[in-house]
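Input record (one chain):
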Amino acid sequence: MAFQANNFSVARKKVLNKGELNVECNISCSDEIAKVLSVSGEACLSSNEVLNGTINYSAYVDANIIYLNNQGEIGKVSSTCPFTSKFSSEEIVNGQKANIKLKLEDMTIEGVNADSIKVVAKVSEYCEIVDNNEVKSVKSDDEDVCSKDENINIIRFVGEGCENLTVTSELNLRENIKRVILTESQVMIKDVESGNNFVSVSGDVVSRVLYLTENDKFESGYIYDSFKEEIEVEGATREAKAEATAFIKRDSLNVTLDQEDKGNKVTLEIPLTVTVRVYEETQALVVQDLYSTKNQLNITTESFEMSNVCQSGCVEGKIDGSLSLGEDRPRVDKIMFVGGNSVVVSNSYLRDSEITIEGIAKANVVYLNDEDNSLNSVALEVPFVLTDKFDVENTDGNLSVDAIVCDVDVAVKKGRELFYDAKVKANVNYCYSQVSGVISSVEMGEELPEKDCGLELVFAKAGQNSWEVAKEARVQEELLLAQNAETIFPLQEDTSLVLFYQKRN
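The corresponding structure, as predicted from the sequence alone:
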């Protein structure tokens, strides 16, 4: 055969349509509930299955409710609410890797009975699919077919690796405490580096512990820990690019309270799932142009899309804002505690070598009103805009942003104004698509008429190179160069070239 397949594969990352769903949680409680003070939680992925046209996944909402019972005591109840969902697209193919991210956007109390609470959680779902897409290309070993080859740069998806690990965080207190009311743990990737058959991932785990002292005082403390893990990925090299995601398996998070000589120690065992994906920049030898000296050729050129090397980075900043309570709400005389700290990214974009991240920081503030000695709560929502340097080659790609909030502080001013202050940290992954073209198939056409002359005068134009002249004349480039050895290409001016032929028998 004159032409054979010379196919190669390139990385393809596709973002599926984002979606939202409501998850209903019916939470049982052994207490008789007088008032719900704080509701918070996270949406967590359990497993997924990629089929042709569909990605099915199972997940759960980890819900935490702080309430006041009929005896005036603070209580807490937690529940895991399982749910399932799916992504559908013609682009989903069995064998692809799915990167599913879930974010709890909001939680609403739908009803409170004597011993149960009905909560509806609004969850946003996001999914990327990653695989290698085969690109059709050709080559030829026919002596009558002239081909011009070139090496093109391509990105190939090497593979994915996943590791489960546990980070142990400790909070040592010099005072005795009655019980832990609430723990809030968050994880963020800081650095990803590819090695030989592994990827090194490091990140931060930030936890906040809300507790009640023996003097019935609410206090909280932050714990900052880091982790570094090497995850095996066969085929990874030091020159490869890698990206990583991490989430906390909240249904397996364990909290213990131990008595010390001078106080208490709170220990958190935080289970993490860390996933890495590796991309390799390499080259593929393809036919840039070709022609036959004996036949017409029917050439098909097709374009292909390739996901370029991803870029990642970390962005940090401050959030502050205020909220004024309406006259119909009890005034704030003392803030008791703050729970349900979270951040939701609503938009992100690149412009002028900067990244802009827009979102909303959320918190539940529980406060005391002295006039009627009542506990009340209010939900804070503070919008923010974060900008930082983030220089990329192309700004038309896809941004994936994971953000956490820490060092949250809420103060009261003049009884009806609450001031919110916190730090926000975001991990950014960026990837864009590049479109190129390649000759995908060639068919032999009609035979060219035989050259019946012994000499031919070829009129070549200024600027043409030897390949272009030989292609127009339908001769081997080597023959043209050998018979016009003194001619310099590309031509500086219009030139007449001479070709000599031997007649075919």
